[in-house]
Design a protein that fits this description.
The protein is an all-beta fold. The protein contains 1 helix and 29 strands.
């Protein structure tokens, strides 16, 4: 073949026409992770107590392997399994942090939002950190890597299957001793579905003295279930003075609209629901302490610590000189070594609620040579009053030589 005849053939081989097969472009960028689909998953509406789980799919692109060094969940999120699949395989294998993932592979990461405890919304995220060598052909020790950070986000709108109206937290105004009070709270289904109530087995919160609780269904069906219940919290006139609190908690024994345990769009419906109402109140006596505990905290040998509390009176029939103080240290051990000195002094003028006040000052002088120990005891104030003859103020503190300056 003559050279002149071969030139067109050589030209066609070296420089193909535009309609010929063009070699595919090669990605020369460092490896990285890309999210297949959306990096934010929205569960929509869920009930408190449901579990919401989603699996994110990622893929590795670029010219170099990718290493996942971290997948850190937020407080409201827990991370499940991480798996990966090689480009030439159909098998998913567990992934271990630090393991190189070759280009073209797929990665699955499962995340779950924690059990929902309160509406209206919940946001969870997984912070993913990955690394990839910039150029593996360079002889570098350590090699230069590119770090990638991104979030995988889950969103949900949370509602209660059963709610308390007007509120699940009831804080009463101070009640005069002997007055009594009844608070009404509606317990109702947010879907209009009837339900029953049962006391859970783990409910061991003691009932405060003088408090009575009753919950009755409104127009119940033949099972005794109703979509609306009336909860009565009655503070009796015989309730002793001081702060009180209680949590009324019941198990909802009617299934939610979806079958319990059923999974829809990544949301597993709770197998059981609960409802609760918290109650806090304070009964003001004719004679009481503003606080019944004094903490001296951590004290060093040779230090002096003071705490102040107040005795409150509805009238001025009692004088500070009429009171007798008795300090009773906790028995046993070395807690009897020192006790606080207690002084009483009347405060001129009444407070905002018209009560007279007597200041109770406790002072602890810790000797230099006192060994480490815990101090506990009671300050008993004998009033001579027929209704409230003794008021008790507890105290505690810790002596530590290591607390020296």
């Amino acid at each position: 073949m003559s050279l002149l005849f071969a030139l067109p053939l050589i030209s066609t081989m070296l420089f193909p026409a535009s309609g010929g097969r063009v070699p595919l472009a090669i990605d020369t960028e460092p490896g990285r992770l890309e999210v297949v689909g959306e990096a934010t998953h929205r569960f929509g509406d869920v009930f408190a107590g449901d579990e919401a789980t989603h699996t994110f799919t990622l893929r590795t692109v670029g010219a170099t392997p990718v290493t996942i060094v971290q997948a850190q969940p937020s407080v409201s999120t827990s991370r499940g399994a991480i798996e990966w699949q090689r480009p030439d395989s159909q098998r998913w294998a567990p992934y271990a942090f630090g393991e190189p993932i070759e280009p073209g592979s797929l990665v699955r990461l499962t995340a779950r939002l924690s059990n929902f405890v309160a509406p209206p919304s919940r946001r969870g995220r997984i912070l993913v950190v990955a690394e990839s060598p910039v150029d593996p052909t360079r002889m570098e020790d350590p090699p230069t890597v590119r770090t990638q950070r991104f979030d995988l986000v889950m969103l949900a709108t949370v509602s209660l299957f059963v709610r308390a109206t007007p509120s699940s937290v009831v804080a009463l105004d101070p009640l005069p001793h002997g007055s009594g009070h009844t608070e009404i709270v509606a317990i109702e289904s947010t879907t209009g579905q009837p339900f029953g109530l049962a006391e859970p087995l783990d409910h061991r919160i003691p009932m405060p003295p003088g408090l009575s609780v009753r919950c009755t269904p409104i127009t119940p069906d033949e099972r005794g279930w109703s979509s609306r219940w009336m909860l009565e919290l009655a503070v009796g006139a015989d309730t002793p003075p001081g702060p009180h609190g209680y949590v009324w908690r019941r198990k909802v024994i009617s299934a939610p609209p979806s079958e319990p345990g059923a999974t829809e769009s990544g949301v597993t419906r709770a197998k059981e629901h609960f409802t609760a109402v918290g109650l806090t109140y304070r009964v003001e006596g004719a004679l009481e302490l503003d606080e019944t505990f004094a903490s001296f905290g951590l004290m060093r040998p040779g230090s002096k610590t003071e705490r102040t509390r107040h005795l409150l009176m509805r009238d001025d029939s009692l004088d500070a000189d009429d009171l007798r103080v008795e300090v009773v240290p906790e028995t046993g051990g070395d807690a009897n070594s020192i006790t606080p000195a207690v002084t009483l002094a009347a405060i001129s003028g009444a407070d905002e609620q018209g009560r007279q006040r007597i200041e109770i000052r406790l002072q602890l002088d810790v000797p230099e040579a006192l060994p480490d120990q815990v101090l506990r005891g009671e300050v008993r104030i004998h009033t001579g009053d027929a209704e409230f003859p003794v008021l008790t103020l507890r105290y505690a503190g810790v002596v530590r030589g290591s607390a020296r300056r």
